[in-house]
Design a protein that fits this description.
The structure holds 2 protein chains of 2 kinds.
Chain A (H helix, E strand, L loop, with lengths): L7 E10 L10 E9 L3 E5 L6 H8 L7 E6 L2 E2 L5 H11 E4 L11 H12 L12 H7 L16 H13 L5 E5 L7 H17 L3 E6 L10 E4 H4 L5
Chain B lengths: L1 H11 L1 H33 L7 E5 L3 H9 L9 E2 H8 L4 E13 L2 E6 L2 H5 L1 E2 L3 E2 L2 E4 L7 E4 L1 H7 L6 E2 L2 E2 L14 E7 L9 E5 H7 L14 E2 L1 E6 L5 H9 L6 E4 L1 H11 L1 H32 L1 H9 L4 H42 L10 H30 L2
Parallel strand pairs in B: 4-12, 8-11
Antiparallel strand pairs in B: 1-14, 1-15, 2-13, 3-4, 3-10, 3-14, 5-6, 7-11, 8-12, 9-11
The chains are: A alpha/beta, B alpha+beta.
Chain lengths: 232, 398
């Protein structure tokens, strides 16, 4: 498969992490973990396996005690807090289980907000995604564009979350249990749209879930217990 | 984007934000109101008399002389002789004099014996002349010219008879009822003590204090209470004042009305300061309410903070967001408090003017109010920096 030969988008080497409250307890111990550019990885792990910590490390909200973390040619371990905030705004799209949107803002305003943080930091050659066509592709009709998102259904909210996450055309898209609050129909719609969008914009996708029934959308399935030697 | 986010976030928390706003509006209303009334009262106070160079009376304190001659408050310690009055009135530097004789009253209003010079030379506010709206000035011995409030309160018309009683207060037992006066003129409102004065001719005052048999005589007053002096040239003011103060024949005192007025105002500075302090304390408590409301919202906005961080907001963004929310509330409250004060002034203007003789302007767009508004915003930013810093810390630790 051609993707395997792609250069790595994520590369973790000897990453060690423990929380400062309990330095003796290693939460993460990752000797090596690599994801190629454009690859879609399903990471399965139960709670307590260190997956939320891993996601915070990948998004630069936490810094590892030691080790090298490179994402889209950014070396996170060498960056300042401010540089990591910028990295998150421009290179990372994030869809969580819930509360992906500011509830009192409309869908369009939520996307504008993401644009606001990415604005001016994004290189000129990266064309802005057209918000309206994006929302239409995600099956959000025009009537819902300017309503406060708290008035939308959960399914609609999660689809707007996809739009918000990819609005700045990030290199990496992280999804953390994004379907756990959705019913079967909404889950299928969400998954197919997420996969289509990631494919269309050539984004690398790290999808974390404990729901193995979703694994058929992915070619690569990693287990937290394989990645993280510290995991219980 | 920040302002839009802050506005929508505040609108999303309508309940607590509205309550905070109401507390702020009330405190700002009090703050602006006290300042406005203080300024207007001072303005109205210092415009009680103008265009008079000296007030001369028996030696006492300058406040005492000012109070009884201009404000009709308190009583003179002594009268001054007609002879001394005449000798000063004929001084070559003196352009005009207004004699004043006090001590009688009519239904609680002070009676002031004077001459037609009063209507010609007395000035108030910005050198404004007294205006007789109905009738005329004094023509005969028993003519009366009423201040606007006297005429309005007692419902007097031109030609009405008036009985003057001795002493002040409307329950005086000695009335000069064998000498009825007649209303000859009514003055326009001035917003000064003139409105509450019953003006009679000096000879009229003299007549009622004499036995009926002597009445037929030419009534030359032997003494008056005080008099006001207008000079030909301002340069002579201090020299004449010194001369009067050092007069050997009689212990007299001359005061400069402007100086005495500002001294009188200074004696009220404690009241003024206390009112100002109270209004700032009320504002401080409203401001702490605002800070408490913001601090309480930090916890409930934890998820929102996390979301903002994940889409790339720096922790300082949260600090600024909280500051902007506080300043928006403050700004809205300044506008609300100002609007409330303006409508209150428009509604109450008339009754305050008739009841207290205090004319309140409605212009709130002044330099000192702009200064207060700026102080309010600065104080808000200062107090809000505490919850804003907490929000910053929360954002940093997600």
């Amino acid at each position: 498969m051609s993707i395997i030969t792609n250069p790595p988008l994520i590369n973790l080497e000897h990453v060690i992490f423990s929380y400062s409250e309990d330095p003796s307890l290693r939460v993460l111990d990752i000797p090596s973990w690599t994801v190629s550019a454009g690859e879609h990885v399903f990471v399965v792990g139960s709670s307590g396996s260190g997956k939320s910590t891993l996601l915070k490390i990948l998004s630069g909200l936490l810094t590892a005690n030691s080790g090298a973390i490179s994402i889209a040619e950014h070396h996170l371990e060498n960056m300042s807090d401010k540089q990591r905030d910028r990295f998150r705004a421009t290179e990372l799209g994030y869809v969580a289980q819930s509360f992906n949107l500011i509830p009192y803002l409309s869908a369009v305003e939520n996307i504008h907000l993401a644009n606001h943080f990415g604005r001016a930091l994004i290189k000129a050659d990266r064309n802005k995604i057209d918000i309206e066509s994006l929302l239409l592709k995600l099956n959000i009709t025009q009537a819902h564009w300017h309503k406060a998102v708290e008035q939308l259904s959960v399914g609609q909210q999660q689809r707007v979350a996809i739009a918000r996450a990819i609005a700045n055309k990030p290199a990496l898209l992280i999804a953390d249990e994004p379907t756990s609050s959705l019913d079967q129909t909404n889950r299928d719609t969400f998954m197919s749209m997420l996969m289509t969008m990631a494919e269309a914009h050539n984004m690398t996708l790290v999808f974390v879930s404990h729901d193995l029934s979703l694994s058929h959308y992915f070619h690569r399935i990693d287990s937290m217990s394989e990645i993280n030697k510290a995991g219980g | 984007m920040l302002i839009k986010l802050a506005t929508k976030s505040l609108l999303d928390r309508k309940g607590s934000v509205t309550l905070t706003c109401i507390a702020m509006i009330i405190s700002i209303f009090v703050l602006f109101g006290v300042e406005h009334i203080r300024k207007e009262a001072k303005e109205s106070f210092s415009s009680t008399i103008s265009g008079v160079d000296l007030i001369v009376g028996a030696k006492s304190g300058q406040l005492n002389l000012l109070l009884y001659s201009v404000f009709r408050m308190g009583s003179p310690v002594n009268n001054i002789s007609w002879r001394s009055y005449q000798s000063i009135a004929t001084d070559p530097n003196v352009a005009w004099t207004i004699p004043i004789s006090l001590g009688d009253s009519h239904k609680g209003f002070r009676v002031l014996g004077t001459s037609n010079a009063y209507f010609e030379h007395y000035r108030y506010a910005k050198k404004e002349k007294l205006d007789i709206v109905q009738g005329t000035e004094f023509n005969s011995r028993y003519d009366v010219v009423l201040g606007a409030k006297v005429a309005a309160d007692l419902n007097y018309k031109i030609g009405n008879p008036i009985i003057v009683s001795h002493g002040i207060g409307d329950t005086s037992f000695t009335t000069h009822d064998q000498h009825p006066f007649t209303v000859a003129g009514i003055l326009a409102p001035t917003g000064t003590p003139v409105d509450q004065t019953v003006h009679v001719k000096l000879e009229g005052i003299e007549a009622i204090h004499q036995t009926p048999s002597a009445e037929a005589n030419v009534l030359q007053p032997t003494s008056i209470t005080a008099f006001m002096v207008g000079l030909k040239s301002r340069i002579a003011t201090f020299r004449l004042q010194r001369e009067i103060n050092n007069l050997d024949s009689e212990p007299l005192m001359a005061i400069l009305p402007g100086v005495a007025l500002s001294e009188l105002w200074r004696t009220m500075s404690i009241v003024e300061g206390t009112l100002g302090l109270i209004s700032w304390l009320v504002f401080a408590s409203a401001l702490l309410g605002l800070a408490a409301m913001l601090a309480a919202s930090i916890r409930e906005r934890k998820k929102e903070t996390y979301l903002l961080r994940i889409i790339g907001a720096q922790p300082i963004f949260l600090f600024v967001l909280f500051q902007i929310e506080a300043l928006l509330i403050s700004l809205a409250s300044i506008l609300g408090g100002g609007a409330l004060l303006y409508s209150a002034l428009v509604i109450a203007q008339k009754s305050i003017s008739t009841q207290f003789g205090l004319h309140l302007g409605t212009n709130l767009l002044t330099g000192s109010n702009a200064l207060i508004a700026t102080s309010i915003l600065l104080a808000t930013a200062f107090v809000a920096s505490l919850p804003a810093f907490q929000a910053y810390n929360q954002a940093k630790s997600v």
